[in-house]
Amino acid sequence: MSTPVLQVNDLKKHFPLRGGLLGGTTGYVYAVDGVSFDIAKGETLSLVGESGCGKSTVGKAVLRLFDITAGQVILDGERIDDMPSGTLRPMRRRMQVVFQDPFSSLNPRMRVRDILAEPIRNFGLAKDGAELEAKVAALMDKVRLPRDAVNRWPHEFSGGQRQRIGIARALAAEPDIIICDEAVSALDVSVKAQIVNLLQDLQKELGLAMLFISHDLAIVEHMTHRVAVMYLGKIVEVAPKRSLFAAPKHPYTEALLSAVPVPEPGAARERIILKGDVPSPINPPKGCRFHTRCPYAFDRCRTEEPPLRAVADALGEGHVAACHLHDLSPAENPLSGSKGAALLAAQ
Ligand SMILES: Nc1ncnc2c1ncn2[C@@H]1O[C@H](COP(=O)(O)OP(=O)(O)OP(=O)(O)O)[C@@H](O)[C@H]1O
């Protein structure tokens, strides 16, 4: 098997909490607490979960926007989490980001031409002015904006068009992986679909790897290959899209999915309302972090943390989940798969 474009091993990011009279560290926000995944060339992995579960912190850690507490981030076989900044520079080109807010992520004082030319110049990707112009024009074509729009300013574009410019700017660096952090969340529904389609087309055309961070499972369903579900700083389940949507193997995923509308009336999911709020990442629950809200929790869940491990899945390989239910017999396990099979049959 070829080396994954991105590998994240047991990543931890604990933010210190300062307080007291002397401003010392009084505790930590365990924002990301042992997260591992990898992404292959041409693959989209979506990282989903409710607000505050640590998705953006994973994205920022991968981009090395801050130092991590522990773990490894490996880009194309090379560890970048401990790389000195001089060596990191060329690696930075290979990982680009598209942010949520297309209004604040583009410099209002730069014309589109300069926004796109900047990474090409900075990373030395054009040998002369003519090549630079040609690359800028090709980027406009790629994101389906008219070439003459390069002379305009960001404020002259709609939200969706600005996001296209944001995507073009990311592509300008000729990256291997794009991290989309809630890249379509701020857009209107119809525009969302267009940008998702564009990202999907570009990914196929360019063979990019993509980490798609989103709280919106309905969007993810349309564009991803695999999904990783996060809860309170940990990944609780990873699976190919089809398996995850048809037969979730973690109660949290099951609850998240129950809120996603299903187009076919006969296949409607029963809505699961979770009790209580997400606990604080400053003081996460012992045992399984989800046990305080889990409808199926039993004694073991309150004391013993379940590891992420392979679970049986009739739909295919590569399904992992962190849940003690899978040690029970299929008859006792509410996630053993019958619901998923029924849903799939109705599709
Ligand atoms: N710089 C920081 N200092 C302290 N705590 C932080 C910092 N950044 C994030 N956190 C905390 O870490 C936890 C995870 O935040 P993060 O932004 O990664 O979550 P998220 O899943 O991306 O949610 P959202 O979509 O709302 O941003 C939250 O409790 C957040 O308050």
UniProtKB/TrEMBL annotation:
Ranges in a coiled coil: none
Membrane topology: Peripheral membrane protein
Pfam family, one: ABC_tran
Alphabetical list of SMART domains matching this protein: AAA
Domain of life, source organism: Bacteria
GO molecular function per UniProt: ATP binding; ATP hydrolysis activity
Keyword DNA damage in annotation: no
Residue intervals of the ABC transporter domain: 6-257
Single biological process term from Gene Ontology: peptide transport
Location in or out of the cell: Cell inner membrane
InterPro entries: AAA+_ATPase (IPR003593), ABC_transp_ATP-bind (IPR050319), ABC_transporter-like_ATP-bd (IPR003439), ABC_transporter-like_CS (IPR017871), Oligopep_ABC_C (IPR013563), P-loop_NTPase (IPR027417)
Keyword set, alphabetical order: ATP-binding, Nucleotide-binding, Transport
Any one GO cellular component localisation term in the record: plasma membrane
Keyword Heme recorded: no
PANTHER family per UniProt: D,D-DIPEPTIDE TRANSPORT ATP-BINDING PROTEIN DDPF-RELATED (PTHR43776:SF7), TRANSPORT ATP-BINDING PROTEIN (PTHR43776)
NCBIfam families: oligo_HPY (TIGR01727)
Family to which this protein belongs: Belongs to the ABC transporter superfamily.
Protein name listed in UniProt: Peptide ABC transporter substrate-binding protein
Organism: Falsiroseomonas bella
